[in-house]
Write a structure and sequence with these properties.
Layout (H helix, E strand, L loop, with lengths): L29 H22 L6 H14 L9 H4 L5 H5 L29 H16 L40 H8 L1 H21 L5 H43 L1 H26 L16 H27 L3 H14 L3 E8 L9 E6 L6 E6 L10 E7 L8 E5 L3 E6 L6 E6 L4 E5 L9 E2 L11 E10 L7 E9 L3 E7 L3 E8 L28 E6 L6 E6 L3 E6 L8 E4 L5 E6 L6 E6 L4 E5 L2 E8 L6 E6 L6 E6 L2 E6 L9 E4 L6 E6 L5 E6 L4 E7 L10
Helix pairs in contact: 1-2, 7-8
Length: 709
């Protein structure tokens, strides 16, 4: 069947697929769908073609189209009956259909972008600007909080040769007188002895072969033999003396390195320290000063002053008794009068000695702590609080028996910021450092290497560890006794518990989240939009567990807030105390009135709080300086000590809440950093920025009753 147009051209549609009679086509599949689609489109094409023909030929073309559809047989294509019966409207036939031919998507097998940009390209200015920004970031990296020091694999830069000009070399000419035989003996020491033996063996042969020698020759030979014998004798003597000197050096070195000699030196050092510091140690322990009746006039001024004071006191008592007998005064009245006179004398701090040596000089005292079982052993941490002044730190253990040199010295790669002794194992000393690492040392061992270190821990702190403490907590109903835990707080906003196993690992007790400050809304003022926080976590500065219930603790932050937290509560904070305008450096519970606590801050103030009230009870501010440390007295609920940059203060709330009872100013260019009360005596230890720990005696300070609140 053929189809012709008006001009007589053959426009018969040709099939797109020629079937093979030998192949079997499946009834269903993609081919069936495509064939059905072809059949439908074919009918549409024919119908659209017939619509554009003249009216006279419409009938014939329609008849031909129906014949084409009915007579043409597709052997492998099945046309759906409903698609053939579908009728198209005139609008569908008149609509123009656009076909677009597009290129397929390019598939890249290998794409290596270039790292070099031409100077003349359009992106040259943008690349240069990015390079300049990167150079500025690398230059400003030291001192920036946006960078954390971590290990990574980087590309090694090209090696460069650098030259340095050294100081000018100064040359000098020196001379000395040397004889010819000195030169000969110096260069031929090893050949003198065999030569002299050879000459001795040749002498008889020479005499027998030449019996007729002159007198001058004999004299010459005798002089030369005398000189040779003298030289050999001197060499032998020098060799013997050198061997004796070497043996003496080896013997003396063996004596100096022997254990018995070291122990004897240790005992001698103790005896010397007792003799030097005996009056001051007696005053520290509140013992009477021992005096030798056979002391000479060269005795120390302290002993003489003590003897003179005792003599004056004895004379005064004798005189009072005589006056009492003469005037018939009641003894109770006289004792009350003496007590009143003693109260008139103002309290003061009397300096006894200082813990300082060449190693600690120049380091800032960051923390101090007493041993839990030995009240004479003091651990002191040395480090810097400023980022720009960081250097290697020290952790030293001082003893009252030797205030001039520490018993143990632990060298640390970074500044020490916190330390504490264990209660269950008193020989363990935990040390926190400025880089966020924690180490545990054994004070019984003379080795300064750490037993455990957090350098391998994947969850270690990324900021300075500002406080570290061993805390005892009840095991509960399942266990007996108490369990000791090591807790730390860091500037990365985490309060962490350290697990002591084969290595030091940790888990977070809490992450301190930032809290918005509560600002009062003025009348008629619109609501302010909340400011976006740069970091969701607030830097932790200090903490203190409740003295009776160790499940509760306080945490001070860099924002100036103090949060009351619980170890067994899901809530992050139970309460929040807002009163400081600067970082909180220390919080301390009152050991007697356990519902009261103190806090000190960089806003120059000390605040007394009650745990049930979020409003400060009392605020103490005596100087315009940072208050670095505060501590309650272990003997009274009213007395506490505070250390600010300019002075150390003793406050007695039973006397005054406005001014301290004792103030001791620091030396020029020296700042006080920490305070610590002695356990069993009326003494106070104060650390400063020069690495010196001064021991002061509290004189004329009558402590109120400790049970009174």
């Amino acid at each position: 069947l053929q189809v012709f147009d008006e001009e007589g051209k053959d426009v018969t549609p040709h099939p797109l697929f020629h079937s093979d009679p030998n192949t079997v086509v499946p009834r269903q599949g993609k081919l069936l769908a495509s064939s059905a689609y072809f059949g439908a489109t074919g009918s549409v094409f024919l119908s659209s073609f017939s619509m554009h023909q003249p009216s006279g030929a419409n009938a014939s073309l329609e008849q031909k189209r129906s014949c084409l559809l009915t007579s043409y047989n597709f052997s492998d294509v099945q046309v759906r009956q409903e698609e053939i019966k579908e009728e198209l409207t005139k609008a569908d036939l008149d609509r123009r259909v656009d076909l677009y031919l597009t290129e397929t998507e390019t598939i890249w097998m290998l794409d290596m972008p270039s790292v070099v940009v031409s100077v003349e390209s359009e992106d040259a200015a943008r690349v240069l600007e990015r390079n300049r920004i990167y150079v500025d970031i690398c230059t400003n990296r030291p001192g920036s909080d946006r960078f954390v020091e971590k290990m990574m694999q980087t590309v090694n830069g090209a090696a460069k040769n650098k030259e340095v000009q050294c100081d000018k070399i100064i040359m000098e000419d020196k001379g000395m007188m040397v004889t010819s035989w000195d030169l000969y003996d110096s260069f031929h020491v090893s050949e003198i002895e065999p030569t002299s033996k050879a000459e001795g063996s040749r002498t008889p042969t020479g005499k027998s072969s030449k019996p007729h020698t002159t007198k001058e020759h004999n004299q010459t030979m005798s002089v030369s033999s005398d000189r040779g014998s003298t030289t050999s004798t001197m060499i032998l003597e020098s060799a013997v003396l050198g061997r004796i000197h070497e043996e003496e050096e080896c013997h003396s070195e063996a004596i100096l390195t022997s254990e018995n000699f070291q122990q004897d030196l240790f005992f001698m050092e103790r005896i010397l320290m007792e003799n030097i510091f005996q009056p001051k140690l007696a005053a520290y322990r509140q013992f009477p000063v021992l005096t030798d009746p056979n002391v000479t006039s060269d005795t120390s001024g302290t002993v003489a002053a003590v003897k003179e004071a005792k003599q004056e006191k004895h004379d005064k008592e004798k005189k009072d008794k005589e006056e009492q007998k003469e005037a018939f005064i009641d003894p109770s009245i006289l004792s009350g009068l003496n007590k009143t006179l003693e109260e008139i004398v103002p309290p003061r701090l009397e300096r006894l000695w200082s813990y300082v040596c060449d190693l600690t000089n120049g380091h800032s005292v960051s923390s101090m702590v007493w041993s839990k079982v030995n009240p004479d052993l003091l651990a002191v941490g040395y480090g810097a609080f400023d980022f720009k002044e960081q250097k290697k730190g020290l952790a030293c253990c001082w003893s009252l028996k030797n205030p001039m040199w520490p018993e143990r010295i632990f060298q640390c790669e970074h500044g020490v910021t916190a330390l504490d002794f264990s209660m269950a194992s008193p020989n363990l000393l935990a040390v926190g450092m400025y880089n966020g690492s924690v180490a545990i040392y054994d004070v019984r061992s003379c080795n300064d290497a750490a037993l455990l270190d957090s350098s391998e821990s994947s969850n270690k702190h990324t900021g300075p560890v500002w406080q570290l403490r061993w805390v005892e907590q009840d095991r509960g109903a399942t266990g007996d006794g108490k369990k000791e835990r090591l807790i730390s707080i860091s500037a990365d906003g985490r309060i962490t518990e350290w697990l002591i196993q084969k290595r030091l690992d940790c888990t977070d007790l809490m992450k301190i989240k930032r809290t918005e400050s509560e600002k009062k809304k003025l009348p008629g003022e619109k609501e302010r939009k909340s400011e976006a926080l740069i970091s969701q976590q607030a830097a932790g500065m200090c903490f203190d567990f409740h003295p009776k219930d160790t499940n509760f603790y306080l945490a001070g932050t860099e924002e100036g807030h103090i949060h009351q937290c619980s170890c067994s509560c899901n809530e992050p904070f139970l309460k929040t105390y807002r009163g400081h305008k600067g970082p909180v450096y220390k919080v301390a519970w009152n050991p007697f009135s356990t519902d009261m606590f103190l806090s000190c801050s960089a806003d120059w103030s000390i605040i007394l709080w009650h745990q049930d009230s979020q409003t400060p009870i009392l605020t103490f501010s005596s100087a315009t300086a940072f208050v670095h440390d505060v501590m309650w007295s272990p003997k009274s609920a009213f007395i506490f000590a505070a250390a600010n940059e300019s002075r150390v203060e003793i406050w007695d709330l039973s006397v005054s809440t406005l001014n301290p009872v004792i103030s001791r100013f620091a030396n020029p260019r020296v700042k006080f950093t920490s305070v610590l009360f002695a356990k069993n005596t009326n003494c106070l230890l104060v650390g400063d920025s020069k690495g010196e720990v001064s021991v002061f005696e509290l004189q004329n300070l009558a402590a109120p009753n400790s049970n009174k609140v």
